[in-house]
Design a protein that fits this description.
This protein is an alpha/beta fold. It contains eleven helices and 22 strands. α1 crosses α9. The N terminus and C terminus are likely disordered.
Length: 431
């Protein structure tokens, strides 16, 4: 069981702010590497969510019960859980002030708060969500209603959006769309009477060229219309109109209004306000914690590290990225405590299991070079049934029983399954 936080003990050698995937993974790996290390986790939530499972659960591919557990059940043995949230960061004094007014001092700080969903940056969206055909799989309270609306859709124009900001799980806006399109096509009379449009503020469908070529073939095969450089800025829900700012390079910005019958919105995202307003934040949009892209150490405060969605690490924000970053951060944090040089290097590895249908996944893996890499010893740019099995059957178990336990330290954490998946991959599409 996790140790209880003591009111008279407010200093910790390592203070981790955030008890999500990144924070728990780092805590578990630290305690595996150095049993007895004084580690505290500052996290207000009482429930821990496997967010990667929300799409799977909503689409009926994973039992909902497998997407969450009590936070107390995932706190590593030996770690102190402080059930509160950070209100102020004072890195010069090496302390964090909590919402309850407690002062927590530390020798080393790890920031792993995740990001915030900035619904209010889209005019009319907060009040529209869940009404007038406006849905989002990114809103946990609305996941079930989102998929109910998709299954109840009876034709018309279905818009799916991708914002201009970095987002967690960059492939999720398309995953929802492809699964929804499968549902439309399987429903009598709906597929033929539906126009699916993907409106993205980005310059292409996927940031890695090899995977972009794959998804371009997917949308062409499905007859999905794509509108790039289209950033959703307003929802006029009662009129069922979405307003986009069109920012194509070399062109004057303009507004374009599009009527819809179903609108799936992915909100803009940024660092939590407490981070963006702190001395830890990088200058410029987003407010991310400013860290070295290879060591995960803060660029101005040597006793601060960060990883995951809240960090400035210039790679896609995903659970797989955390799995690449955590062992590097842990090794460098321990080196810092010992007064040794920081030798571990993060190469930007990340991955996105891009679901393209109810039986196929593109396991998109890449690093800072923006070149495809593969942990499974197969061409990662192809749609595969074997990867669908890994995403829906293997990864949920691995998350709860290996990732959060501090296991699978390799940055290419999928490698242990390579031989199995290579064998399974022979089953479909010439894998």
């Amino acid at each position: 069981m996790a140790a209880a936080a003591s009111k008279d003990r407010r200093h910790h050698r390592v203070l981790i702010v955030g008890g999500g995937s990144a924070g728990i993974t780092v805590a578990a790996q630290l305690l595996r590497a150095r049993p007895g290390l004084d580690v505290a986790i500052l996290e207000p939530a009482s429930v821990h969510a496997y967010q990667s499972g929300w799409i799977l659960a909503g689409a009926g591919l994973l039992p909902y019960a497998q997407t969450h557990r009590p936070e107390a059940a995932v706190i590593p043995a030996g770690a102190v859980w402080i059930q509160d949230r950070a209100a102020t960061f004072e890195p010069e004094a090496r302390r964090v002030i909590t919402a309850a007014g407690d002062t927590l001092s530390y020798e080393v700080l790890v920031v792993a708060t995740g990001l915030k969903l900035d619904w209010s940056r889209i005019k009319g969206l907060p009040e529209a969500l869940g009404h007038h055909g406006v849905v989002s799989n990114y809103s946990h309270p609305h996941v079930a209603a989102t998929w109910k609306a998709i299954r109840a859709f009876r034709g018309g124009t279905a818009l799916f959006t991708h914002p201009a900001t970095p987002i967690k799980c960059g492939g999720a806006p398309q995953k929802v769309m492809y699964l929804a399109d499968d549902i439309f096509q399987a429903t009598s009379g709906v597929g033929v009477n539906t126009k699916v449009i993907f409106c993205s503020a980005q310059a292409q469908l996927y940031p890695v060229e090899a995977y972009n070529a794959t998804v371009e073939r997917v949308v062409e095969r499905r007859g999905i219309e794509t509108r790039l450089f289209h950033n959703l800025v307003e929802v006029r829900a009662e009129e069922k109109v979405a307003v986009f700012e069109v920012l194509a390079e070399g062109c004057e910005p303009r507004r374009e209004a599009m009527a819809y019958d179903l609108l799936h919105v992915v909100p803009p995202m940024a660092a939590p306000d407490v981070i963006a307003a702190s001395p830890l934040a990088i200058a410029g949009p987003g407010g991310w914690v400013e860290v070295d892209r290879h060591t995960c150490q803060h660029t101005r405060h040597a006793d601060v590290f960060a990883l995951g969605d809240v960090s400035s690490l210039p790679t896609a924000k995903s659970l797989a990225a955390v799995r690449g970053q955590a062992p590097v951060l842990v090794a460098n944090l321990l080196a810092h405590l010992d007064g040794r040089p920081l030798a571990a290097r993060y190469d930007g590895y990340t991955a996105c299991p891009l679901i393209t249908s109810f039986h196929d996944v593109v396991m998109a893996e890449f690093d800072y070079t923006l070149q495809p890499v593969s942990s499974f010893l197969v061409d990662p740019t192809k749609e595969r049934w074997s990867m669908f099995l890994v995403e829906t059957r293997v990864f949920p178990w691995v998350y709860w029983h290996r990732v959060l336990k501090g296991g699978l330290h390799e940055s290419r954490f999928l490698k242990p399954f390579g031989p199995l998946v290579r064998a399974l991959g022979l089953a479909r599409k010439g894998s």
